[in-house]
Amino acid sequence: MPDLILSEDEQMLQTMVRDFADRELIPRAREADERQEFSWENWKGMADLGLTGVGIDTKYGGSGQAGYRKVAIVAEEVARGDAGASVSVLAHLSLGTNTIYRFGNEEQKARLVPSLASGKGIAAWALTEPGSGSDAAALQTTATERDGTYFLNGSKMFITNASVAESIVVFATQDRSLGYKGISAFVVNRDSPGLTINPLHGKMGMRSSTTDEVVFQDTPVPLENRLGEEGRGFNYAMEILDSSRIIIAAQCVGIGQSALEAAVRYAQQRETFGKPIAQHQAIQFMLADMATAVHGARVVTMNAATLKDEGLPFVNEASMAKLIASEMCVDVSSKAMQVHGGIGYFQDAGVERIFRDARVTTIYEGTSEVQRLIIARQVLAQYQL
Ligand SMILES: Cc1cc2nc3c(=O)[nH]c(=O)nc-3n(C[C@H](O)[C@H](O)[C@H](O)COP(=O)(O)OP(=O)(O)OC[C@H]3O[C@@H](n4cnc5c(N)ncnc54)[C@H](O)[C@@H]3O)c2cc1C
What does the alpha-carbon distance between residue 256 and residue 327 come to, in Å, rounded to a whole number? Predict the structure, then answer.
């Protein structure tokens, strides 16, 4: 039963992605998690449906212009099926491809976006470094221009999709003394000389996606691969993160929804004291709290997407949505495990994977603490009582 008013188009998109998740992502989710490597099967399925180019103009090989509400619907439904698959497609679409689509010139968009939007190539987005995550402006990777070419030196950490990417959007400084004003954005081809990509092992969740270290040693980048103006890269990164937070919030709603569904299913089957545990009020209250939290997070997320699509201020609401939805999905997936009792702690039940997947969402794309800093700044500016 729908709990939001969606347009006919939005409902069709939701049904299409939900069917795909039920048919392909959910049956493969456990094995993909155990294999701990990028799932090409998932990728191909998403590309065939056009999900790798949602919101990108057909002129650039995408599925057509669409607002953030539609991207949020895709994010939720894919994450409900396999959260790891959603990390791969969202880092590709809402971070990597979108940065080129929004800040690239016509030539760059025509050259780079069609392959990415169609899913033939994959995009990665490299901001974080071993020494700088929340404090992104402190990044140390340098870009030095010599004879009409930039040379990159330094390293990036925790980069989703890097080892399978065709194009990596990289943020590097041309002058550290300028702070954030020294940072520019570049597109680095995966086959560039002096580029080493080391997959990182031992990740807790999201294990059907790949997370990598990227090392640059005098990696040449042609001038025509600089995005936008020199010195504006940090602003571009922040703009992309502002809107991408809506999409991460939607991912969290999908993770919460899958935990809720697993808990309801189990509560109706498992019997204790002569009746299904769903008839014990303590379990009912837990399910009620979970459903309420998922619904609340979905509403604030779609509200932020609507504000963005209508061209209204949305940054504060996007941070609130990311904060509410990420903390919700950690809590709801933990409750789903509680409803399962002992079996929930084992792989077979599937909720321990959802719990492990959920945990990273309060950390990446701005930790909960960073979201609170953004919201507090806004609140203090708004209420001059
Ligand atoms: C699976 C995964 C995928 C990722 N994918 C990508 C990707 O594709 N591209 C990319 O660029 N990055 C990616 N990241 C990196 C991610 O965005 C960073 O890990 C995140 O921003 C946090 O940075 P950090 O790890 O350096 O933590 P830190 O910044 O060192 O933070 C450590 C702790 O200190 C707190 N803290 C920091 N500063 C403050 C402050 N001012 N006030 C209060 N508390 C503070 C933080 O909230 C946190 O609790 C990924 C990370 C993971 C785990």
Answer: 10
